[in-house]
Specification:
The chain is mainly α and 353 residues long. Helix content is 80%, strand content 0%. The protein is globular and about 55 Å long. The two termini are 35 Å apart.
């Protein structure tokens, strides 16, 4: 009860701070809201993908992950509701929403505000339906395989399209054919790191965690590979409209952010996870997973905020948005725990003689 009280206070304080930020600098506040929202929403979105994968890759470690991942995936409707401020103020974040840019006809049609909002609603309806399907299929091996086989295909396609809609279209003249895959890597890292943090806190401080460590290392390598391929292809192609994307993120403080992301999300954890001592340490893996979740916010900020040129207001708006959205999502996650417990009780009652 005390935890819920503090979470509610954090939600109220965060939304009040966001209201102040909206009054001071609407563009900066909405841009920060989008960045913080995507970093937080990546947890339930990614959890759904990892959950389906765990249905196909069986093992004790995947069984342990089911509880936290299922609960996280069930918070997707809340994540969808938290996207409403972005839809309401999309003209401040997306240049195409206000008609300030001249785009080819197919981009103009695809990025029509009503169509953009309709697609966003469609994504969350599909993901929520998949999360409910995954939950209902858990007790049946054949149903789990069916749900995961279909769910991963639908999930991958919709996550790719959502990343292009929500992140890439902040700069409508830029396009990367690998951007959808970058979004998949982003959310997989968030979902897996979240599930690992919850599971590992319940385990002894020293034990063999090679399965968790190996899985996290694999996803980190996927994330790094996708970013490296985009950089190499764009830079060697020397296309000004695409190179500018990196130039904007190499100026001022964003250059520092890129180095922090490069070192903190790849170099340091990669070298650490190559150590048998780290791979078998529960405490070390919790720290790496926690750092991965924190760096989701930094990467989201790097992807969204540089073209908005918001300035000093970011120092206030980004923490405010993070507090409001993070506390709300955590409350929703706690509520999903209660819902799943009630569902398990109902199932037991039905199966009782």
């Amino acid at each position: 009860m005390r935890e819920r009280k503090w979470l509610r206070l954090c939600v109220i304080a965060g939304f009040v701070a966001c209201g102040i930020g909206l009054f001071v600098d609407p563009k900066a506040m909405l841009g920060c809201w989008l960045a913080a929202w995507f970093a937080a929403a990546a947890i339930p979105i990614g959890a759904l993908g990892v959950l389906f994968t765990s249905y196909l890759v069986r093992g004790g470690w995947t069984q342990d992950l089911h509880g936290p991942l299922a609960r996280a995936a069930l918070t997707l409707p809340v994540a969808g509701l938290l996207f409403i401020p972005v839809l309401a103020g999309m003209k401040a974040v997306y240049p195409w929403a206000g008609g300030d840019v001249a785009l080819p006809w197919f981009k103009t049609a695809y990025l029509a505000p009503w169509f953009f909002a309709l697609r966003a609603a469609f994504y969350f309806v599909i993901w929520t339906a998949l999360a409910l399907w995954a939950q209902r299929a858990f007790d049946d091996d054949a149903a789990r395989v069916r749900s995961a086989s279909v769910g991963l295909i639908v999930w991958s396609l919709t996550v790719s399209l959502a990343g292009i809609d929500w992140l890439e279209s902040v700069e409508p003249y830029f396009h990367s054919s690998i951007y959808g895959m970058l979004t998949i890597g982003f959310v997989l890292l968030a979902g897996l790191a979240f599930g690992m943090m919850i599971v590992l806190q319940r385990l002894p401080r020293q034990m063999a965690n090679t399965a968790y460590a190996g899985t996290l290392l694999s996803v980190l390598l996927l994330w790094a590979y996708l970013h490296a391929m985009q950089y190499i292809i764009i830079w060697t192609g020397n296309i000004p409209g695409e190179v500018v994307w990196y130039v904007k993120r190499s100026e001022g403080g964003w250059a520092v952010a890129l180095w922090v992301l490069f070192l903190g999300q790849f170099i340091i954890p990669f070298l650490a996870l190559c150590s048998p001592r780290v791979r078998s340490s529960t405490r070390a893996l919790i720290w790496i997973a926690g750092a991965t979740l924190a760096l989701r916010y930094l990467e989201a900020a790097v992807l969204v905020l540089p073209p908005l040129k918001a300035g000093w207001a970011l120092a206030f708006c980004l923490p405010a948005a993070t507090l409001a959205i993070g506390a709300t999502q955590l409350l929703a996650w706690r509520a999903s725990e209660w819902w799943l417990a009630r569902l398990a009780t109902d199932r037991a009652a039905v199966g009782a003689p």
